Amino acid sequence: MLKIGLLTSGGDCQALNATMRGVAKALYKAIGDVEIYGIEDGYKGLVYGNYHKMKPRDFSGILNMGGTILGTSRMPFKQMRMPDENGLDKVQAMKDNYHKMDLDCLVVLGGNGSQKTANLLSEEGLNVIGLPKTIDNDLWGTDITFGFQSAVDVATQVIDNIHTTASSHSRVFIVEIMGHKVGWLPLYAGVASGADIILLPEIPYDIDSICDALKAREKAGKRFSILAVAEGAISKEDAALSKKEYKEKVKNRKYPSISYEIGDRIFKETGQEVRITIPGHTQRGGAPDPYDRVLATRFGAAAGKMILNKEFGYLVAMQNNQVTKVPLSEIAGKLKTVDPNCEVIQAAKAIGISFGD
Ligand code: F6P
């Protein structure tokens, strides 16, 4: 009898259920004699022993279901080695519960922080396999994470909708896209929806350059402009601050988010009327798109195969359109950021999209 634990950790995204379905179905099909434990609310469930035995039927009808049937939570990596408020050693508790369930492998569906903890548990001697989740697409070692493409679809749809109202009014529209440290989502949604200006954390912006681009559009007779702004977009001045100074500045910012600050500066410097839209968590919600369902099935089936081959301590990854595996120790704690000179950005610039630099 093979015993597997599944957990979904960190911010949710589309295709978490589809990926778990892939793992479970691959194992049931290959050997049948499998017991799967669903660990509830991410690592919290592993720490506090909240889990339940799952049945094959739990994995039916969930391919197109958003969210996660197991629930999730954020348990920052830096707190993992700290005892909880009752003095509980969380890492020891996770190991104890793993052994209590008598698991052969723990499968962690998670992003950066979650895979760091997965690596920690692997170093502590547990059999762990990671699956790359996040709308941010910022996990090192894989070209793509599940959830990203579905979030691009949502954000693109939002900007498409803004286009129709924007074309009726002479206004500047800012759409704030998720991704606080990296700009994959605003980059892809911005290009896909024909945004005029895209601001990414990786390319600090100059407000004058943004205003020049807006004025040039107005002069060319364009009735409106659309900016796709990463929630973590940063000005050149702010990028020059130390981490501490920048954190302090953000804490005392009088605007609810960076888009409002940019909008205010644009209005003051160009006189153009500005409207702001923040789709927020809708970008993580709803059903996975067909691309993510296929990706989830490929990743899930690969994890199933790795469990059967006893290949532990790896993240299932996509490289050059091939599903592969990367040691957790190689990816733990590394962010995959957007290269400001990448081909997508060059193409966008070639057709006149401004990055505010
Ligand atoms: O990591 C995914 C993500 O959606 C980021 O894009 C966003 O900055 C963050 O999570 C939001 O986190 P929370 O759901 O905890 O507010």
CATH topology of the largest domain: Rossmann fold
Counted up, domains total 2
Structural class: alpha/beta
- Work out the number of β strands: 11
Order of helices and strands: EHEHEHHEHEHEHEHEHHHEHEEHH
Q: Segments where pLDDT lies below 50 for 5+ residues?
A: none
Helix content: 40-55%
> In the CATH hierarchy, what is the architecture of the largest domain at level 2?
3-Layer(aba) Sandwich
What value does the average pLDDT take? 97
Q: Tell me the strand order in the biggest sheet.
A: 3-2-1-4-5-10-11
Please give the largest β-sheet: 7 strands, mixed
The number of helical elements comes to 14
Explain what you see.
With 357 residues, the protein is α/β, with parallel strands linked by helices. It folds into two domains: 2-146 and 288-331, Rossmann fold (3-Layer(aba) Sandwich), CATH 3.40.50.450; 152-284, Rossmann fold (3-Layer(aba) Sandwich). Helix content is 41%, strand content 17%. It is built from 14 helices and eleven strands. The chain has helices spanning 16-30, 43-48, 77-80, 90-100, 112-123, 148-168, 184-192, 207-219, 236-239, 243-251, 258-270, 290-308, 328-331, 343-350; strands spanning 2-8, 34-39, 51-54, 105-110, 128-132, 172-177, 197-199, 225-230, 274-277, 314-319, 322-327. The chain has a seven-stranded mixed sheet with strand order 3-2-1-4-5-10-11, sandwiched between helices. Helix 1 (16-30) links the parallel strand 1 (2-8) and strand 2. Helix 1 crosses helix 12 and helix 8 (207-219) packs across helix 11. The mean pLDDT is 97. 6-O-phosphono-beta-D-fructofuranose (F6P) is lined by residues 11, 74, 111, 134-136, 178-180, 231, 284.
